[in-house]
Fold:
Amino acid sequence: MLAKRTHAALAALAVTAGALAGAGAASADQRTGADRTPKRPPAFERTATYPVFQNRPAGQDAAAETVAEISAVSEDGRTLVHTDAAAKRIGFLDISDPGRVKGLGTLSLASLGDAEDEPTSVTVVGDHVLVVVNTSASHANPSGRLDVVSLRTRERVASHDLGGQPDSIALSEDKRYAAVAVENERDEDAAPAGGEEGDLPQAPAGFLQIVDLKGASPEAWGLRRVPLTGPDGSALPALAAAGITGPTDPEPEYVSVNGRGQLAVTLQENNGIVLVDLRTGRITKAFSAGTASVRGVDTVEDGVIDQSGSLTAVPREPDAVAWLDDRYLATANEGDWRGGSRGWSVFDSRTGKVVWDAGNSFEHLAARHGLLNEGRAENKGAEPEGLAVATYDGVRYAFVGSERSNFVAVYDVSRPGRPVFRQVLPTTNGPEGLLPVPSRGLLAVSSEEDDADAGVRATVSLFRLGAGTPAFPSVVSAPGADGAPIGWGALGALSAVPGRPHELYTVTDAAYATTRVLTVDTRREPAVIKRELTVRDAAGNPAGYDAEGIFARPRGGFWLAVEGKTGAGNRLVRLDRSGVTRQVVPLPADVAAGLGSQGFEGVTATTGADGREIVWAALQRGVAGDPAGVVRLGRYDVRAGTWSWYGYRLDTTATPGDWIGLSEITVVGDRLAVIERDKLNGPAAEVKRIHTVGLPRDAAPAGALTVLPKRLAHDVLPDLRATKGWTQEKLEGLTVAGDGRVYAVTDNDGLDDSTGETVFLDLGSSRDLFGRD
Structure:
């Protein structure tokens, strides 16, 4: 059973200039009928996540880097083509069935030229794939070509010299023209005369190429160069007058064409936008993207999600650009070397003025969904990079991709000056290409980050617009004391809240510098993190525990299972109801000496009729000297202050480099339930299971470990796979709430070597799962 969830709570959220509206209100135009019942807008639901390494050429190492950056689709919407700069090729995928993507093979661009040639962008016109290829030997000697490939035979049928290093390509709506941004990007390690390393200008200057497609075979296509500097390299008056940062080195980045044949191109490093008439090749307007001041964002990389920072007058430095209609255009303000406003903006192309700006709301979306990458706080935050616009069933949508927080935000832009937030779509790492396929109700997202060692692979994900309820998000946060969403992530444990049957506690781990206990309300769909409590040491200072387990004591306060970097660092920590440390219980020295860096991974407790409190804790891996494949379940008698140990036999794995261990423990009546999992994710994941063992009434006998017989209660892997996303590795939280529902949660590691997606599962009733109330 998947997590309880609904899109309704998110559909009513509206983004205004710099503010995220509350989830409880629906706008008037979303209400229908005499009772004014809110009407749920259609939503995008993920249907497939395809790892592109599975489409590699025969004989290639599965661990070799292969990525998916920019994608295009055939005119029938059934064949997707993506660039793979890392492997110097393009890939072909069959997306006829949105729930079952199939690899169709690849074409090496390097084999058509030089071994270092890499595709940077792609589009499709008719039966031909247009691929722009960077062939540059160096930054000082940029070069590139436009390859035309038959979609049917996958053979190159024509090639054109672009005269420089290309970045992006776009088609006009009437398919008469293609436009290529020839960036001739700067060398970030070089310093121009009088400047610093990475500064502008650095010759040669970039320009545009317009490709005339109509009425000719690909071999005869003509190219028209549109210079963005004077013949002698001087600044064009239009660019200089617009306040472009370095008009002698424009570095065109991303191109988009509206229905009137008007091209918009961003000059990211120069914080500018230029408009060009495709028919004549004439520059019609140039304007600065301007600056933005943003409050309420995390600007200090210190392991603490603190959204009280601000940015003052930072250049937007837009990357992707897309037309909302023939007048208004939008930019994703990623930033480069001087700026980045952590959001996106809408411009009036007639005046060059900003008519709407996301302010801090894009970054707040990341925080609310557990996707805020705190490790990027001092750089460009959520880093909005990709942007695409398309019309589905008469509604105009904008899709804005977060490169560093791994999501795509969806907005209704039917009124360009008043975008309305609709939902967040989870992606794998580094979503680069956003490809609407409105003829089939699909959106494809291609992600460029690929790290086989970390188990994070590049993918193409598909989402389909429909009337159903998306699986994501399954948990979000409410506003905190400062009005910003409570920042969260790395939920590695769960506990019921005594006396509150529909609430749970969870706790953050070492992904963050300060430990917090978070309260989750399961009555809301998605579940809502509504309170946070900072954990403190005995002196009252914020504590940084690697908390891998939490148990809320019926008499008040908490037990935490704290994992150490070494065996001796593992300990039980008792907190009072205010989160202050009141007791620390170390491991026995002989047990600690046999542990490495993987120790405590869960804690629970019982209180007898006589008031005797017994704490149970699970060790993730075996202790040196214990039988192979057996891990320990610790029994700590609080009154006596003594430990005793039982054994638990793990399943085995035949996967090289894998291991299996425990990651949670909780009391279920007269049994202990544990999570047993492997360290694999994605399609490689195999073991994500809940087992139970009998709850011993007495301390373990001395001598050899008594291994408790185990019983499989539930295989969680199908529940994780049912989300159609990247199967998460760290299934780490499990508890039975006061209402008898069983909940589990995955730990997203604060986005470190993880997609960042958190899966919060309602697994059903305890009676159904464990055979008891």
